[in-house]
Amino acid sequence: MKPKKITTSSVPQNPIKTKKLVIDKEKIIFNFTLFNGNSINLDYFNNYYLDLHHAINAVGIFIEKIKAIENKTLKEVFDSRNKRQAHCHIIETKEEIDLIEKILLEGYKFPENRIKEFEKTYYQFSLDNGSRIIFHKIDNIFILLFIDNNHMIYKNKSRNIKIKEAHKFPSLLAPNKIPYTEEENKIRTEIITLISMCDTKNKEVKEIVDILKEIIDYQDIYV
Fold this sequence. Notes:
This protein is an alpha+beta fold. Helices cover 39% and strands 12% of the residues.
């Protein structure tokens, strides 16, 4: 009796089912690796705040918006019906794209090669105080870049632009030192003068000097 012929098939008997990734239905993921929370002031762009109150308020608003968006899908965030809520869209005009890249290069010192990797593809979403977050997107990953709190990427649509150009209070989303008041600067100057006049070889005087230095963060600023 002839042996049965063995046949092979390219189709497995129990094929493994794989889930097809539908990007539009994926939840937003935020990436802060390249995020610059610090303020800069250039001839053509300023993202400082009016005062301490506005800077503190901005931190809470930023966090709340991040929490709200990360629970949504791409489709929900970019849905035109949610435009008023997130105001999330791609930035398409050459003028605004060039301005963003100029800010990244001259203001935030991004390497040119890194900027090229973005392939001139930038997006924005708004915060509840009118600020815009500029970001690059890869699929459902939002790579945050910087905050346009004075709406200067679109200067022609920004109100009171001259006033905003004069804002000097730094963002609290970065390790900037809060500017001292005129009175505080006067006191600090007097203490620094006193420190320079003291004989630090004297143990008792040295202890006083060390206390004065601690009060004004002397070690961090002047040494």
